[in-house]
Structure formats: C-alpha cells, structure tokens
Predict the 3D structure of the following.
Amino acid sequence: MIKKILVALDLDSDTDIATQYAIQLAKQSDAKLTGLAVVDTKKIELSSRGGGIGSFYFAEKLRENLTAETRDKARGLIKVFEEKVDKHDVNHIELVEEGVPFERIVEDMKYHDLLIVGNDAHFFYGHPKEHTETLSGIFKRSIGPSLVVAKQFRTVKRVLFATDGNNPAARAIRRFIHMAPFGTDIEIHVLHVHKKEDADAELILQMNRAYLNEHGYNPQMIKMVDTNPGKCVIDQSISLDVDLIVCGGTAHTGIRGTRFGQSTSYMVEHTTVPLFMDH
C-alpha cells in the first residue's frame, strides 16, 4: 500500500516525468504527494570559498548571491510542481529545505513509502549540469524503495523483474508485489542473469515463479549468462519492450565518495524506462 510519495525536484528534464508518475500513482492509490526542493548549502559553501584573507569578503558575497539564486530556483520548482498537481485534484504539500540534498531526502524518506526521482538528478540548482553523487547517496542510505525515472512517460503494463538471486533483487521484487504501485493487471517477465554458469539459476527461477504464482501472476521466465549483467538487463528491457524494470542495486562509499556498483550504474545511466529499485 502506498499512502505517501516523496518527489525530489531538480532542474533536470526528468523532474517533469517524475511528477507525471507521481500524479498517476497518487490518483491510483489515493496517496499524498510531497514535492521537495533542497538548497544545497554545503555545495554553495564549497563553491564560494576564497583563496585568502583578502578574498573573504568577495567569497561571502558570492555565497550570499549563490544562496539567494538557489532559493529562487527552488521556489520556482515548487511553484511548477504545485501548479501541475493542482490540475489533477491530488492531495499534496511542498517543502523547501536547506542542507545536503541526499541527507534531507533520506531523512524525509523515513516518513514516506516511495521516492520518485529522475535518473539524471544533480540537485545543485546553481550549476544544474555539474556532476554530483546525490542519487547514489540517497540509494545507499534510504530505507525505502525508489522509482528512478528516465526521459519519457509510459503506461506500465509490461514489467521486467531482474534477479541474480541476491537479497537486493529479492527485496525489490517483494516490495513491488506488496505495494502493487501500478496495479495487478500487468505482464511480468523474470530475468535471471549471472556472469557464469550457475547451478542454482534454475532453482532461483522456480522459486520466483512459485512466489509470483501465489500472488496471482503467471510470469515468463528467462535465464541468461552475461559478463555485463547491467547491460544484459537493459538490452532485454528493450527487446521485450517493457515499461518498467524492477531490480536490486548496490552503492559503495569510498575515498571518492558514494558510487553506484557497476551494474547499477549502467542501468541508471542507460535505462529508457523507470527503475523500481531497492537495496
């Protein structure tokens, strides 16, 4: 059951698509939407630091200007979101918060059922094209599932469940079945992909089939061996013309910050349909 949906608003083109999915799910589930824009005060501080004592005044002025500019853009995102949602008679609230974006989003996700976010989100409104690690940070630390949307909106009727037998994939499938965000009248394909021949592959597919049968689904099962599982999932999603991919994922924190695992990163960057993800 979905009753509260958090929509992370950014200047990227995916935010409009995220809002469309949020409205659809809210109307279908009678859920409440929260539109969230975050002023990245940490990034602003780092971007405005001066080189010495003499430059402190100018750095402070730059910080003030960046903060004011970013707040204006955040309020603009909120206004656009509010206007779109109002047209569909959906219950909603809007929030502008300040801090580190992934920390604010992770905190708010403690009180929401689902996060909807674009796959090209940066959350640095002052420099919207600058690379950030916000999305991987959210994914690693959030306690709930995420719907990561791409560049187009599609009515979800055909779904690909990607599994490797590990916990993140099993958790994502179970969450999707329990939530039924797009209803139960869907066609399901289950893809088990592994890097080398796996004696347990057939058993994993049988267990997934039995689980889905108990929930009233009759899935189509696929088993593949591929050295690049992420690419295999995307290729199959295109071949099967699915509208959504349900998958687990990984993210790791190291010296260079938080990064998606290799397969997860490939799927997020190359998908043309939404990813329903858990970890």
Q: What stands out?
A: Residues 51-59, 127-132 have pLDDT under 50 and may be disordered. Residues 48 and 61 are 8 Å apart (CA to CA).
